[in-house]
Design goal:
- This protein is α+β, with helices and mostly antiparallel strands.
- The chain has one domain: Aminopeptidase (3-Layer(aba) Sandwich).
- Strands 1-2-3-4-5-6-8-7 form an 8-stranded mixed β-sheet, with helices on both faces.
Length: about 180
């Protein structure tokens, strides 16, 4: 079994959403497994498919990897709101380093009921700021070519979007934060 450094939760940003909710962006900690599982369970099949490019459910080991990761190689943030005495995760974004630590791949998913409220944009802006502070010089990602809202968000934040030369169903996203 590989031991991974424990992550502690660090507050990154707070703001009030257009709907009037007090929002929090913070790092994902190792004790967020239950919150992450609940978040993923609430995603529609289409939203989950757009995130993992598969209709299958995540396996337990894959879920554990989402919350127990090497903080030297990965950065994970979540956007949450307090509801009914607990925290509800509305979006999750992550970076995974490669290429000598100055490049990374990003991924983001926003719950269906929280889409088109600016939460994804705020979360992705914070993720890119964290990447820049960590010395990341190049951030890439990919999305389904049919995922127009994701492509629009990334273009708004300055990403380039190019068709994947090996797969016409995928769009490659890239930015130097």
């Amino acid at each position: 079994m590989t031991r991974r450094p424990m992550t502690r939760q660090v507050e990154i940003d707070r703001w009030r959403s257009p709907a009037g909710d007090d929002m929090l962006i913070r790092s994902v900690g190792a004790d967020d497994a239950v919150l992450e599982a609940e978040f993923l369970r609430r995603l529609s099949p289409q939203t989950l498919y757009e995130r993992v490019f598969s209709h299958r459910k995540l396996r337990r080991g894959e879920l554990n990897q989402l919350v127990q990761f090497d903080v030297r190689r990965e950065i994970a943030l979540l956007a949450a709101v307090q509801r009914d005495g607990g925290e509800e995760v509305l979006a999750v974004a992550r970076l995974k380093k490669g290429g000598g630590g100055t490049q990374c791949e990003f991924a983001i998913v926003v719950s269906d009921h929280a889409q088109r409220q600016g939460i994804g944009e705020r979360l992705l802006r914070n993720l890119l700021a964290v990447a820049q502070r960590a010395g990341i010089r190049h951030v890439t990602g990919h999305t389904l070519s049919t995922n127009t809202p994701m492509k629009a968000l990334c273009r708004k934040l300055g990403f380039s979007a190019q068709p994947d030369p090996d797969d016409a169903t995928v769009t490659l996203l890239s930015i130097a934060p």
